[in-house]
Known about the structure:
Blueprint lengths: L1 E2 L7 H16 L4 E2 L1 H9 L5 H13 L3 H14 L4 E7 L5 E5 H16 L7 H8 L7 H5 L5 H8 L10 E3 H6 L10 H11 L6 E5 L6 H13 L10 E4 L1 H6 L1 H11 L4 E4 L8 H4 L6 H7 L6 E6 L1 H6 L5 H6 E5 L5 H19 L2 E2 L1 H14 L7 H17 L15 E2 L1 H12 L8 H8 L1 H6 L6 H15 L10 E6 L6 H13 L5 E5 L8 H6 L13 H8 L3 E6 L6 H13 L1 E3 L5 E3 L3 E7 L3 H4 L7 H13 L2 H4 L4 E4 L5 H20 L4 E4 L1 H9 L9 H22 L6 E5 L6 E5 L5
Parallel strand pairs: 1-3, 2-4, 6-9, 6-10, 7-8, 8-9, 11-12, 13-18, 13-19, 14-15, 15-18, 20-21
Antiparallel strand pairs: 3-4, 5-7, 16-17, 21-22
Amino acid sequence: MGTLNLDILSQEMTASLNDAVALLYLHGQKVLTPELLLLAMLRTPGCTARKILGRFSKGRGFDLADLEREVESQVRMRRGYDADFTFTAQSGRPARLSDEMLVVLDEGKTIAEAMGEMWVGTEHALAAMSQAGVSTAGLLQRRGITPTALTEMLADQSFARKGPAVDWVTQARNGDVRLVTFREALLRDLMGLLSLAGERHVILVGPPGVGKRSLVYSLALLIAEERGPAGIRSVINVSEQAYLDNPAQAIRAGLRRAQGGILVVPDIHRFFGGALYAELPDGAKPMQRAFLETGVAVIGTTTPDGHQSRLSKVAAIAQHSRVLHVPPASEEETFEILRVHKPSLEQEYAISIAEESLEVAASMARRYLSEQPLPGGAVHLLHRTCALVRMSMQENLAFSSRLSGDAVLDADDVLLAVSQMTNIPVTRLGADERSRYARMVEHIKKRIIGQDEAVLALSRAVKTARVGLKDPRRPIGSFLFLGPTGVGKTELCRALAEFMFGSEESMVALDMSEYMDESAVNRLIGAPPGYVGYESGGQLTDRMQRSPYAVVLFDEAEKAHPRVLDVLLQMMEEGRLTDGKGRQVSFSEAVILLTSNLGAAYLGDPELGDGAREMAMREVKAHFRPEFLNRLDEIIFFNRLTDEDLLKILDLLLGRERQMLSERGIELKLTDGAKRWLLAQNDHPEWGARPLRRIIQRHLREHLADYLLTADPPAGTVVHMDEGPSALTFQAHAPSHP
């Protein structure tokens, strides 16, 4: 016994069948006949078939109530023959279909397909019930409801169901047009491929956002104006919902509508790749058959990866289609595209858009939204900016707006939107920001003692980039820090991150001692396809993909494997890296810092004087290849710290101790003698300031911890520390209470 396939029925048709089953049990019938279905339709006011019958009753002058009574009378008298097919209603009650009911459903499916519909609706079933050979035909035809009359009625737009397939050419001729920019060179190539005598199928290959669908829509507008390729009458686009509901049926419906024209299939790679990768595997075979047809030209869109990994392996597509690569638009083309979008955006957001903002949007999107190619990135940026301007006009907004609140979108608004989307400060410098960057050297020197040359070099690079005078492709700066251990190389990196981002946590720090093996390259930029770890991405590239404005530290660079250093060459020269997944990651807004202890023995020897740097550079050149060193903006030498420098650094470290104690309400005071005593505990002055933390931990913090545990001093206590013969001495003065 067969079971009715509900996938071919519309929701309305399924509901009518459920009602017909209820009537079947009400009248004590054995099988579901066309009369029961017609009676169910007549008793459902919102049903499409009922509306059509209502239109006929007015035009032909008959009463629907009389028709309903006659149909019900025929239900009582007739007994259908079992077709050995069942339909189970929503209530769970099964119903056996009559042979004539099966004919109605089958003929209704044929009528629906002829009209380009995916599902059989009540209107299609009504048309089938009016045809000769069905028991309801006499009831309907006596009232002038003939197959011909129904066909004409169904052609009426008021009854036409919005099917899954839409003809862009027909829409354009009816005045339903959205404005697009014509990319003439690409259109010319596309029309040339569609004018071939055979195998006119085309695969448009390009990353998301380059305008592949807009290119096909432009072609539809030309066809509507009779300026398209000869012999092509339509451009059919099937709705996304139809593909998701039933891919195979959606493809077949699209092909029927597209006879003599073009069928557009967005993201065609979704149908292929097997059960593991294909999103819509049920449509794979119908789609392959479409490429073997000659009556329809299929235009599919896909990404470079989708074409390479999936479509190129499908013989029917690879052998019977032509590939047309769609590159990102230029800034000039993007500007023209934004001008086309401008009126609709102004209407949607109820604002005005200044012309200059379009140029800025195109330029900023290319530079800072590199993961979204033009024109898609620029259109998205303009939408985000419009939303920000619209929000600024709202009263009682939950969050304060940084915009002026007027209804005009200008270039400054676009820059602010870019800053919010990327965390890159591309907004024009205000008075406060300008003053802060002007005092950048002074600010950093509060933390970095005795390294004025390094601080000045870094500050010059950052300030030059901040006012927009750097090469837009290259990083803000690439520096190699050389010097003995403990002189502040890593601390300068932290200070720069804190100044630029407000937090040391914004620094991307990579210890090159973890990248000594050749295979470590995969951890840095991600493993290539087929290797372990491909899905997890690279430690560097993934972080930069999320936040491209950063201080990137490669600590102890001399320990890295040479292959790791080779990977950094393109980053320093071109400002980008290609990760294991083929994505380009931008470093154009990053500061690249490398530290090294090469030559530290010479730089830490005070007796060598000026010759120390020359000897250190010999060691550096012997280790790093010339092409690596030539890509650095500057090699910065860190000076050996003097006793005066160490005393200042000790003061900084003690300041942090005071801060921690002040949070407990305790004040810490040290005499100059106590500070000198702490410095005297440094048994390795060649290690710079690095031992100072350990000295403070052992001789200051541990004693304070014992005191805090045993005495539990109240808030307001002052602790005085002084030097002693073998250790620091301290006295605590509790606050006096009146």
